[in-house]
């Protein structure tokens, strides 16, 4: 393609993008969902948390599945005023006991509920929440209600595989992480600083 034609195309593209930027006038908090089977859901959520904290915004994190290792994001963000509420009782990917897990989930959800009613918080992260809904530990209606009633300027990020269709429909931004390949499948161990 000639330089002239390239410039002409770029100019047209820029005009289209500028028009769309001018048309976007609403200002309110949004619901973001990071779902899918590929790696990057939790890291994307924490990337956004870092951004928000870097702008002096108030962020809180609720984690519905506790990793078996210590948590690099928490080590970094907690000293910067980000509270973490992590589901206790040793619930991990490995152990599942419906009764105790439901109880632990509902206890953790109470923290989420408080945050979702507190206009001080600009961003609330509900990490691995999708499983609580798909395992029926937490009623979908309860989650939908809390999300709909939250403060207007509060944004929320939900992560986890297999996100419920109603949550996807209600969300403003949905990204599906699609695995192309993963080091684990080649026998490479999960690594501190990369995977947790
Ligand atoms: P990350 O925390 O790295 O952003 P994630 O939140 O997208 O990953 P989860 O399903 O929450 O993915 O994964 C839990 C753990 O499994 C993480 O340590 C993650 O790095 C790892 N993992 C994520 N996707 C895959 C995959 N496709 N195969 C193997 N391990 C994975
Ligand atoms: Mg995750």
UniProtKB/TrEMBL annotation:
Signal peptide: none annotated. It is an enzyme of class 2 (transferase). CDD domains: CobA_ACA. Pathway: Cofactor biosynthesis; adenosylcobalamin biosynthesis; adenosylcobalamin from cob(II)yrinate a,c-diamide: step 2/7. It holds the Pfam family CobA_CobO_BtuR. One of its GO terms (biological process) is porphyrin-containing compound biosynthetic process. It catalyses: 2 cob(II)yrinate a,c diamide + reduced [electron-transfer flavoprotein] + 2 ATP = 2 adenosylcob(III)yrinate a,c-diamide + 2 triphosphate + oxidized [electron-transfer flavoprotein] + 3 H(+); 2 cob(II)alamin + reduced [electron-transfer flavoprotein] + 2 ATP = 2 adenosylcob(III)alamin + 2 triphosphate + oxidized [electron-transfer flavoprotein] + 3 H(+). It is found in: Cytoplasm. InterPro entries: CblAdoTrfase_CobA, P-loop_NTPase. The keyword Nucleotide-binding applies. GO terms for molecular function: ATP binding; corrinoid adenosyltransferase activity. Transmembrane segments: none annotated. Keywords: ATP-binding, Cobalamin biosynthesis, Cytoplasm, Nucleotide-binding, Porphyrin biosynthesis, Transferase. One of its GO terms (cellular component) is cytoplasm. Its EC number is 2.5.1.17. Belongs to the Cob(I)alamin adenosyltransferase family. Required for both de novo synthesis of the corrin ring for the assimilation of exogenous corrinoids. Participates in the adenosylation of a variety of incomplete and complete corrinoids. This is Corrinoid adenosyltransferase. The lineage of its organism: Bacteria, Pseudomonadati, Pseudomonadota, Gammaproteobacteria, Enterobacterales. The gene is cobO.
């Amino acid at each position: 393609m000639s330089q002239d034609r390239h410039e002409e195309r770029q100019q047209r593209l820029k005009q289209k993008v500028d028009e769309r930027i001018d048309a976007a006038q609403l200002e309110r908090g949004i619901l973001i969902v990071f779902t899918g089977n590929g790696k990057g859901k939790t890291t994307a959520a924490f990337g956004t948390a870092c951004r928000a904290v870097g702008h002096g915004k108030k962020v809180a994190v609720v984690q519905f599945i506790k990793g078996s290792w210590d948590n690099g994001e928490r080590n970094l963000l907690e000293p910067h005023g980000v509270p973490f509420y992590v589901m206790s009782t040793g619930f991990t990917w490995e152990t599942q006991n419906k009764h105790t897990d439901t109880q632990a989930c509902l206890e953790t959800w109470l923290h989420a509920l408080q945050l979702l009613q507190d206009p001080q918080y600009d961003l609330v992260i509900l990490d691995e929440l999708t499983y609580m809904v798909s395992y029926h530990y937490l009623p979908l209606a309860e989650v939908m209600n809390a999300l709909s009633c939250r403060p207007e300027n509060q944004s929320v990020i939900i992560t986890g595989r297999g996100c419920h269709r109603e949550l996807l429909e209600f969300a403003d931004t949905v990204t599906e992480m699609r695995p192309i390949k993963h080091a684990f499948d080649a026998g490479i161990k999960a690594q501190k600083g990369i995977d947790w």
